[in-house]
Amino acid sequence: MNQMPSDQRAPDTQDPTEDGTHDNTMASASSDYECPVCHDDYIDPKILPCGHLVCQSCVLSWLDKEGRQACCPLCRASIISPNAAGPADFAAEVNALPTDLHTTALVESHKILRGPHVCGLCENNFAAVFFCIQCMVKLCTNCEKGHRKIPALKRHILEDVNNLNVESLARSGQVMCKAHPDRLAELYCPVHEEVMCSVCSTTSHGACAAMKILADMATDTRAELNQRAQKLRTKESKMVKRLKSAKDHFQSMHKKGRDIFDDLHKALDAHHQKLTSIIQAQEDDCMKSLGVTKTGAALTQNATAVERVAQSASEGSLLQMRQSLRARLDDLEKQSDRPVK
What we know:
By secondary structure, the protein is mainly α. It contains ten helices and eight strands.
């Protein structure tokens, strides 16, 4: 879409309506026309490798500041290829990025529609009723009549300003021939990848045998791009399915690992309990066979009794008890010396 001359451009501010309020028709979509870096209307928006849009100058400034570390401000994806060696390569790669001319047209259409609907030709500030798609200018009733009388402008398309919206205005924008700015581009040369008027097709591209009607070529291109975009969506869908399958696989492996560990833990715990029971049973049997508890009590009681007699008995009584006490001690010592199995 051709840009409006500077003296006919609609101001950026909204024009109050009759009731004093502002038209907020496009306010909710303003972010669609703003660069995420400079937060201003897009100028030469470049489609980054990740698919997001950034003004060309903003990309260059960002690369100049951050160098190779610069990445998309929205998704942090890389902007330049690993082979880029320096600023010269950065600039070349940015220039090679596709320019989103549709977004440029949307931005221009948004500016036009959010501006006051006043005639852009006369100096009376009459209310605009029509909009010329080719001239990109709003016209009052009087200027519209004069516009139609000019022979060179008879083929221009005039639309009712009240029927315009951003999308329709951007889509209806006509491309003018570069060599003849007053003529519409009607043909496309696939050999040179250029749009042109019928005059240029015979003078500058007479040897090109593959000339296409602009509308037909656009229809074919739309179909091709939509088909290729659909292929990308199909591939994306397959990648999502593969990713989900991989995640499910590893989640299953994690679960199996946890289940195996739980089973091992339960088995080890069962073995531990069984081994503990066996050892306890053996201990009980051993203590029972040895009579350790009773023997220990007997040793204590007899030791106490012997000590009492040795300290308190008279000499005669002590000597009379000597043999029996010695026999008792010998027997207790034998019991205590028995090995514990």
